[in-house]
Design a protein that fits this description.
The chain is of the alpha+beta class and 114 residues long. The chain has one domain. Helix content is 28%, strand content 35%. It contains 2 helices and 7 strands. A 7-stranded mixed β-sheet has the order 4-3-2-1-6-7-5, with helices on one face. A hairpin with a 5-residue loop joins strand 2 and strand 3. The chain is globular and about 45 Å long. It starts with a strand and ends in a 5-residue tail after the last helix.
């Protein structure tokens, strides 16, 4: 978990960006806020548990106009992990989306509970 520089999640033209450094920030739509690094580490802990067995691609070619999504994790050393889907998702994708929504709400409301 240590060594992560940024996390970018994109789905249907919406983007969640978490920039991790001494003063970490979260950006979602028009919101840009500082985020406590303790919350970032808790988020990363849950994130890695969720994506542990994800494949790199989830594509359903039988659906023409489905959702596109992408998760990119960039590390300080320049390495990058990317996951992509078109009209298909890992089985625990809803847990991933709930984690992101919870983070956004907690940052917006100014309280941090996990």
């Amino acid at each position: 978990m240590i060594g992560v520089k940024s996390i970018i999640y994109e789905k249907n033209n919406k983007r969640l960006i978490i920039s991790i450094n001494k003063e970490s920030k979260i950006q979602y739509n028009d919101m840009v806020k500082s985020i406590d690094n303790r919350l970032v580490f808790k988020y990363l802990d849950f994130l890695y548990r969720i994506i542990d067995d994800w494949q790199k691609e989830y594509i359903n070619t039988n659906i023409i106009d489905g959702d596109d999504w992408k998760l990119s994790i960039t590390y300080i050393n320049g390495n990058k992990k990317e996951y992509y889907g078109k009209s298909s998702y890992p089985t625990n994708f809803e847990a991933f989306e709930r984690l992101n929504q919870k983070l956004i709400i907690e940052v917006q409301n100014g309280y941090f509970k996990y």
